[in-house]
Amino acid sequence: MYVGFIGLGVMGQPMALNLARAGTPLVVFNRTPARCEPLRTAGAEVAASPAEVFDRAGTVILMLADETAVDAVLGRATPDFAGRVAGHTVVHMGTTSAQYSAGLRDAVRAAGGNYVEAPVSGSRVPAEQGQLVAMLAGDDDAVAAVRPLLAPVCRETFGCGPVPGALLMKFSVNLFLITMVTGLAEAFHFADRHGLDQRLLGDVLDAGPMASAVSRVKGPKLLTRDFTVQAAAEDVLKNNRLIAEAARNADLASPLLDVCHTLYGETVAQGHGMQDMVAVLHALETRTAGVRLPGSPDDPGGR
Question: Quick check: pTM over 0.85?
C-alpha cells in the first residue's frame, strides 16, 4: 500500500524526495502543483486532491504550515473527516500548538484512525540530507509502525510518550535553538560594531567549546550576510509564539524566549520574514541605529 505525503514546502519537499528515492511507494499532494514535479520525476505518484491521497494510502504524512492547513486537508468539521481518516494512520510532522495536536488525536481516534505526532528538529539542509531528528508520540503500536518509514528522512527518532509529548519536546529544543541563534547574531553584531574581524570570531568560536553544527552553519551566513532561507524568520516567530503560549499555559517564566519573540517580531515587521532566521541581525542593527519600533521594549509608548 502507498504511503501518502501532503505538504511539499521548504521542508516537506526534500523529506518526500528522500522517501521516494529510498523506494517508498509514495503518493503526494501539494496545493501548489509545481511543487509536485520533482516528486513525480523521483517516481512518486501525484494525487489530484487530499482525498485521493487518503483513498490510496494507509499511512498519510502531513507536513503542513499550520492548523488551518491541517484541518482543510483532513476535511475536519465536515462530513468528509471520518471517512477520510478511518482505518488510516495520520502522521502529523508539522508544528502546531500542543493543545491542537491533542484535540486532533482525539478526533482521529474517535473516527477510527490512528494518530502519531512526529515533529522534527532541523532545517532545509538536514532535510535534504536525510539528517533530521524526529520526536514521536502516540500509541506504542502506531509509533512502532511509523518509525521505520521515517528512516530515509531522519537519522534518529526518539519516543516521547503520549501526545502531545513530541511537540512539547520540540518546543524545548526550539527554545534553545532560537535563543542560541539570536545570541550568535548579537555576538557577530557586537564584534562588527567594535571593528573586530568577524571571520576571526567565527574561527575562535569554531575552535572552542561552544562550537556546534548550528554555529558552523549560521556563523558563515552572518559573516557574509547570506540570508538565504534555511529556517524562515516568520516560521521562527510562529514557533516562538507557540512555545510562549505553552509556557504561559504552564505558568512558567521564559524571559530569554520573550526577548527573542520581540526581536523576531521586529524582524518580520521590517520585511525579512522570508529570510533565514539569522535575519534577526536586522532587528539588532535597527535598535543600534536608535530606531524605536512600535511595541518594542525601548518604545516608550509600548511600555
Answer: yes
